[in-house]
Amino acid sequence: MGEGDYGRLLRHRLFRQTPVASRESIVNIHYDTRTLQLAMRSVELSLRRSGSSWIQTVRYAENSSDAESLMTEWTAIYLNHFDFSGVENAKLAAWLSQRKIISRITPIFESNLRRTTWQLRPQPGVVVQAKVDRGTLVSSGRRESLIDLDLHLVDGCRENLFEVAAQLAAHVALTPQLRDKAGRGCRLFLNSKQVPVKAESFTLPAAVAPLHAFKHIAFSCLQHLHENHAGSVENSDPEYVHQMRVATRRLRAAIQIFKPLLPTSFIEQIIPPLRDLMQNLGRVRDLDVLTSEIVNPVAAALPDEPGIIALSAVITDRLYQARTDVTKRLLAPDYGGLHLQAATMLNRAPFAVAVIKPNKSEIPEDCVDDEQPALTKFAQVRLNSLFEKLLTSAAAARIEHPPTLHRMRICIKRLRYAMEFFRPMSPKKRGSKVLAALATAQDKLGQLNDLAVAGEVLMACVANDRHLHRAVSLVGAWHAQRYADLLADVVTDIRKIQNLKLPRLE
């Protein structure tokens, strides 16, 4: 949230009708080893100034891989040395008290904040505490400004908290902060450069209910999406947008896989804004590929061809406009609204209780009971279904008919994402072999699709300019042999896919 957003936030009716409850200055010194051993164990250690004293705080997330894991906190008066005897987790206290740990603890960064607190009352019987922290993080001479909004439910139910967040997000561009102050402070300490973030691997216990598994997968996709948000807005590196696009496709694939179990309301409310975001990101990605992989190699090979230079300039203008449009989209309230809408629904029933009757018309009888089928059985049924669709599309694929290859590529992508989601339950050797074959075929079919899309985009760019038509013809001729080679490889890949055997999940 920027300064402009902060001003708009204060003009929201919930803030205008609520007096400020308190204002305070907060100084925290955060500690860790220089190799961040505490952070790697999901432990935060800090000292907070309170009058003439300092308060020691230890915070710990026992299961940091769980999106719902809560932080446990212990505080004590600091008496010129760290004392972990008050930490009620005996294993954690013993680890922190080891000489090799406690002797290496050192200041990592400092946070200097001005905190303003309101007690929002959106409706009778509901109280939500809103805290806005404005200030800086400082480490090793480096400084980072921040403005954070934190909402805490005082009275009411969890649903009320999400309703308040949604009301604010409709008025101000708010996005859930996936990296807390400790995480940002550690990054500042390390002086880490911002880089595009790929999807992280995760584990799904086979005993967990399918809807709980979907919830875990969905939050992972949302995190992948948002980890690349700032880079897409602030950086021209196309990989950020590409990773955001991958995240949206993975979430869309997860929805498709778990569709028989998902409430209709979830699908109807999440798919339209997700599709809109995918289209915005896709336009940028298509023009980036067109520039870097289609036109630039020809421009380098034919440097004296004026038509190619002119064509490149036209595409660059379009790419600049597409990036401007996607930046506006990512900074608009709708972007944060998508995250909050998804989080709101994923924290309601049936996801909260993870019990729902599946659509029996889509799941075989041996996988259905009064509640949810076991994850392993459900996953195997869905993988088998996706694999059958892939085999059908492979049998129908014809290299002289590009739409059939496009359909096969979509089937490959969906099966590949599903196998990645359920990979912890798959036999390692066979699962890796199938994934490798799918990745190879998807890459080549993707290159064919890029070339096909490039032709359409190029013709749209040149309109009726005859000089640019000649340049488009040159680009097409230059890539003709590559296209033919890819088609020949795809014939081999289709045979390999038809001979694959899907692994049984364990």
Which features would summarize this protein structure in a list?
506 residues; 3 domains; alpha+beta; CHAD domain; seven-stranded antiparallel β-sheet
Structural write-up:
It is a single chain. The chain is an alpha+beta fold and 506 residues long. It has three domains: 97 residues, no CATH class; 71 residues, no CATH class; 258 residues, CHAD domain, CATH 1.40.20. The chain contains 17 helices and seven strands. The chain has a seven-stranded antiparallel β-sheet. A hairpin with a 2-residue loop joins strand 2 and strand 3.
What is the structure about, briefly put?
This protein has 506 residues and is of the alpha+beta class.
For the sheet with most strands, the description reads: 7 strands, antiparallel
Helix and strand sequence: HHEHEEEHHEEEHHHHHHHHHHHH
| Whole-number total of structural domains | 3
The CATH class of the largest domain: Mainly Alpha
Radius of gyration: 26 Å
**Which second-level CATH architecture of the largest domain applies?**
Alpha solenoid
Distance between the termini: 45 Å
Q: How many alpha or pi helices?
A: 17
CATH-assigned homologous superfamily of the largest domain: CHAD domain
In terms of topology, how is this protein built?
Layout: H1 3-10, H2 13-16, E1 20-32, H3 37-40, E2 43-50, E3 53-61, E4 71-77, H4 90-97, H5 99-102, E5 106-120, E6 127-139, E7 142-155, H6 158-171, H7 181-190, H8 210-227, H9 229-234, H10 238-257, H11 264-301, H12 306-331, H13 333-346, H14 375-396, H15 402-421, H16 428-462, H17 466-498
Antiparallel strand pairs: 1-2, 1-5, 2-3, 3-4, 5-6, 6-7
Helix pairs in contact: 6-13, 8-10, 10-11, 10-15, 11-12, 11-13, 11-16, 12-17, 14-15, 14-17, 15-16, 16-17
